[in-house]
């Protein structure tokens, strides 16, 4: 499931930030969790309860063929179609069918769940948001973008009728309809939706309320992944203003924002104000023990590596490793095991150069290379590419130009062989 969503997310969007919630307001149905929490066997009372517990346990373990059998048995055994639990059974069956690529069957069941909700609650009931949203995600996975948009927007319309035009509870819907527009290649519409997402939060909480910070973060991530780094920087600068107003200029909470700003500076190469502030804040909060402190020190190591000050880079990486170890929250050798790209900028294709009047599609390229302890790639080779003959030479050259944070073992940079890298790119369906 979610093959296309994963592709688009990797290609254009960063992972979604957590959305602010207000428990005092009515909440719409949620679809973020594909499957419910496992039932407690001690609480089962009927044959259906036992089947539901088995279904949910198998689904949680990703044993979808076995979960499908339980889900089908539940739907066949249940007799009261007016019971809201039965509608949920239909939904769970559809979700399992999506996981098994049985889209036609899943579509039928999502539509059946919608029909049952309409019969029970009316054609504009809030209970319809969840099945419409789930159906839209299934269309998205099938690359049926236009249908996905239609369904998502209908779900948003119902949501807004009940919760108001600018409610933040529609955030997940906005993110998914954004992906659908991106699938159609309409980046302008996608950007407008992400701006709407932030505007909803500002209207709900106020421009200076800390609860709008996750929304600024999400928009900044969208801009960053879309190579609109100046716009991303503006969002992080706004976050910094809010945080400083709330907690002052020496608050450790600023580390994450300054780290992201310094990362943008590193890519743009036009400033180092955030980097200098990050260094000062790390010194001022030397007793702070946090994962963010470790990440910030590692970022400074990246800066030094790009500046080819390998001794300073190694020192920062050692401090980052030790800082993470001090938190006790993660094994630093595992966290810093995988090399990380520092200043990779994907080569532009002809589609990226704004000549998009012709049909285009997503392609992918996988490369393998060896990495030295000072973070440089060599022995670069193409493992797989689809379509061939479009981007290979450009990516080969760009990887050799890129600096990498090397693998850290006990805090020390080490060389790594056979590193794999996969990237998505846009290409014209009909090449000249």
List keywords for this structure.
432 residues, mainly alpha, TolA/TonB C-terminal domain, three-stranded antiparallel β-sheet, two-stranded antiparallel sheet, 17 helices, 10% strand, globular
Short account of what is shown:
With 432 residues, this protein is mainly alpha-helical.
Describe the structure.
The protein has 432 residues and is mainly α. The chain has a domain at 341-428: TonB (TolA/TonB C-terminal domain, 2-Layer Sandwich). It contains 17 helices and 7 strands. The strands form 3 sheets. A 3-stranded antiparallel sheet has the order 3-2-7. A two-stranded antiparallel sheet has the order 1-4. A hairpin with a 5-residue loop joins strand 2 (360-371) and strand 3. Helix 13 (273-284) crosses helix 14. The model is unreliable at 1-33 and 37-44 (pLDDT under 50).
Under CATH, the homologous superfamily of the domain at 341-428 reads: TonB
CATH structural architecture of the domain at 341-428: 2-Layer Sandwich
Question: What number is the mean pLDDT?
Answer: 88
Percentage beta strand: 5-15%
Rounded to the nearest angstrom, the distance between the terminal CA atoms is 34 Å
Oligomeric state, counting identical vs distinct chains: single chain
Q: Would you count the extended β strands for me?
A: 7
List the secondary-structure elements in sequence, H or E.
Answer: HHHHHHHHHHHHHHHHEEEHEEEE
The biggest sheet, with number of strands, parallel, antiparallel or mixed sense and barrel status, is: 3 strands, antiparallel
Order the strands across the largest sheet as they lie in space.
Answer: 3-2-7
CATH class of the domain at 341-428: Alpha Beta
Structural class: mainly alpha
What is the CA-atom radius of gyration, in angstroms?
A: 24 Å
Give the proportion of residues in helices.
Answer: 55-70%
Task: Give the CATH topology of the domain at 341-428.
Answer: TolA/TonB C-terminal domain
Low-confidence stretches: 1-33, 37-44
Tally of helical runs? 17
Question: What is the global morphology?
Answer: globular
């Amino acid at each position: 499931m979610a093959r296309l969503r994963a592709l688009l997310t990797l290609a254009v969007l960063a992972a979604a930030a957590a959305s602010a919630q207000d428990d005092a307001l009515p909440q719409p149905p949620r679809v973020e969790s594909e499957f419910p929490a496992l039932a407690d066997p001690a609480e089962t009372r009927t044959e259906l309860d036992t089947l539901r517990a088995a279904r949910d346990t198998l689904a949680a373990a990703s044993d979808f063929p076995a979960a499908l059998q339980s889900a089908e048995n539940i739907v066949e055994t249940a007799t009261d179609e007016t019971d809201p639990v039965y509608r949920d059974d239909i939904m769970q069956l559809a979700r399992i069918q999506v996981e098994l690529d049985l889209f036609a069957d899943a579509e039928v069941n999502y539509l059946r769940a919608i029909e049952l909700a309409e019969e029970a609650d009316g054609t504009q009931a809030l209970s319809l948001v969840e099945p419409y949203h789930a159906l839209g995600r299934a269309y998205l996975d099938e690359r049926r973008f236009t249908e996905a948009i239609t369904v998502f927007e209908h779900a948003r319309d119902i949501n807004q009728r009940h919760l108001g035009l600018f409610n933040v509870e529609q955030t997940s819907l906005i993110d998914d309809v954004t992906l659908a527009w991106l699938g159609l290649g309409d980046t302008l519409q996608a950007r407008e939706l992400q701006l709407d997402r932030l505007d909803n939060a500002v209207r709900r909480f106020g421009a200076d309320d800390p609860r709008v910070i996750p929304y600024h973060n999400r928009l900044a991530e969208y801009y960053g992944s879309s190579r609109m780094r100046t716009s991303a920087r503006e969002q992080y600068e706004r976050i910094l203003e809010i945080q400083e107003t709330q907690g002052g200029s020496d608050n450790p909470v600023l580390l994450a924002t300054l780290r992201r700003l310094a990362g943008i500076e590193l890519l743009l190469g036009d400033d180092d104000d955030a980097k200098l502030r990050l260094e000062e804040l790390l010194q001022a909060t030397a007793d702070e023990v946090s994962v963010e402190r470790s990440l910030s020190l590692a970022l400074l190591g990246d800066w030094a590596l790009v500046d080819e000050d390998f001794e300073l880079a190694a020192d920062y990486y050692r401090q980052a490793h030790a800082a993470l170890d001090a938190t006790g929250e993660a094994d630093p050798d595992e966290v810093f095991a995988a090399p990380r790209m520092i200043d990779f900028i994907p080569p532009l294709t002809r589609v990226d150069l704004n000549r998009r009047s012709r049909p285009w599609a997503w392609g992918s390229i996988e490369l393998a290379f060896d990495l030295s302890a000072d973070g440089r790639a060599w022995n670069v080779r193409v493992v797989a590419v689809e379509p061939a003959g479009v981007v290979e030479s450009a990516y080969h050259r760009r990887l050799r130009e890129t600096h990498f944070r090397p693998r850290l073992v006990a805090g020390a940079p080490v060389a790594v062989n056979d590193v794999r890298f996969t990237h998505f790119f846009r290409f014209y369906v009909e090449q000249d």
